[in-house]
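WARN retry 2 of 3 for item q-0093 after timeout on previous attempt; input resubmitted unchanged.
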Amino acid sequence: MKIDFEAERPLFAQIAEGIEDAILSGAFAEEEQIPSVSDFAVMYKINPGTALRGINMLVDGGIVYKKRGICIGRSGKEGFGEAQGRLRKRIPGEFDCGGQAPGHNDGRTDGAD
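OK item q-0093 returned
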């Protein structure tokens, strides 16, 4: 996951989108723990509150849930596959290029999306 500190998109939203991308690509399995708020804060040298806000966006959307202070990929009544399907429906056509959403930095430095 790459964070663009120069982008107009808020950092917390980029974190949420990065986790969504990872879920859609299968990087996180059902019931697998995602990186913690502290992990994101250290990894990207950002305020933990920023990371928390991004993760809470996904909790509020039912994509992940918190359990004793950790965030875990969604399952339970809805099921992880259904959460993935909801993400795909919410962002139609955006994940047709190997799971990379348009506008997300794929590591290229030529400025192309």
